[in-house]
Amino acid sequence: MRPTRVTNSIRALRFASKEMTQAQLADRIGVTRQTVIAIEKGRYSPSLEMAFQIARVFNVPLDTVFQYTEIEGETP
What we know:
The protein is α+β, with helices and mostly antiparallel strands. It is about 50% helix and about 15% strand. The chain is built from 5 helices and 2 strands. The protein has helices at about 10-15, 20-30, 35-40, 50-60, 60-65; strands at about 5-10, 65-70. Strands 1-2 form a two-stranded antiparallel ribbon. The N and C termini lie close together (about 5 Å).
């Protein structure tokens, strides 16, 4: 299995949504602001359910919020 990296566009989506704050997003998905910060910075990967909730808040497909890419140069 190849190493992967999950990135996200949450910060950009928040700013495109009338500059939604981290606290407002946290309230909408039922987590703390600290959890949103950790997800945005890539220090925490949300559960699949939480990922879908975030996508629904912004009314976008899941792969608009989260991107899953392989790390270059690694062999299986």
